[in-house]
Write a structure and sequence with these properties.
mainly beta; Immunoglobulin-like; 6-stranded mixed β-sheet; 1 helix; 2 domains; 4-stranded antiparallel β-sheet
Length: 285
């Protein structure tokens, strides 16, 4: 069933995540989205613990997809994320891992998101460590300050000798400043008839001196579906000082059964909310 039509202005990319019905192809591959993004390809392993940790990435913002939910974006001020794929011979507990530098350490964890249990994060699948049985891949995630200039940053498992260090590219990414964005305009109608398309347009500007990838999730209610709100991932590479414009059309067929006022919201590098009155279906529908 075709629930929506997406349009993108300016040649950028925009992805739809439909709550509870996602495939691997619905999220773009961002493993090499920026030069020097801290992606660690070589696999490290601990023969004694039977654990392998690889594909360690450092990201200033990350996307996620959720079970029975719509997914979204983590892009909190002053934070960044270290995400890695983990495989073990038997079940693991996330609490056995830490991310360490020469002077500090952090336990795994992410800010609260939307939807249920995440099954992908920053293109790392399998769900979080501790939710999968032995032998299956899962992901491990840390939220740390940004920027973070530190000596010997590494992931550690349980004992002092089982560690996976970041490469030089990862250390540079960790210490680099994040881009910052500002909402220039958000255009959406105040009313719409159920079943009609709802055009939305927004423009953001990179207010920093750092080139970077804009990421945000636009949420639209779908009260007639037993799931969370529908989300659309907005992403674009934006040079320092430049603008980016996104345009899309939202399907209102499943928004509400009776006339109601609902909230369109955006969360990520920018935050915005707009109230839209959904009226009875028009006669021509």
């Amino acid at each position: 069933m075709d629930r929506r039509t997406l349009l993108v202005a300016g040649g950028g990319s925009l992805t739809t995540l439909t709550g509870g019905c996602l495939s691997d192809s619905s999220t773009p591959n961002r493993s090499d989205d920026e030069p020097g993004n801290g992606t660690e390809k070589p696999q490290s392993s601990s023969p004694d613990a039977g654990i392998s940790v690889d594909d360690i990435v450092v990201r200033k913002a990350v996307t996620y997809e959720s079970m029975m939910g719509s997914g979204g974006v983590h892009a909190e001020d002053g934070t960044q994320y270290i995400v890695a794929s983990v495989r073990a011979d038997e079940g693991l507990r996330a609490s056995n891992f830490t991310f360490e530098t020469g002077a500090e350490s952090w336990t795994p964890g992410l800010p609260d998101g939307r939807g249920g249990l995440n099954f992908t994060l920053a293109d790392h699948g399998g769900g979080p460590v501790g939710r999968r049985s032995g032998g299956e891949s899962s992901y491990l995630a840390f939220t740390v300050p940004s920027p973070l200039s530190a000596s010997n940053p590494r992931i550690r498992y349980a004992d002092p000798d089982t560690t996976w260090p970041l490469t030089e590219a990862g250390r540079e990414r960790l210490a680099a400043p994040a881009p910052s964005f500002e909402l220039v305009s958000l255009t959406v109608a105040e009313t719409v008839s159920r079943g009609e398309s709802l055009p939305v347009s927004l423009t953001v500007t990179n207010t920093s001196e750092t080139d970077g990838r804009f990421l945000a999730a636009l949420y639209w209610p779908t009260k007639l579906i037993a799931d969370d709100d529908e989300s659309h991932i907005l992403e674009r590479e934006v040079s320092a000082g430049d603008d980016a414009t996104f345009s899309l059309e939202l399907d209102t067929e499943y928004t509400t059964e009776t006339p109601d006022s609902v909230t369109l919201s955006i969360r990520g590098y920018i935050t915005a909310d707009r109230e839209v009155a959904v009226r009875e279906r028009s006669a021509r529908n």
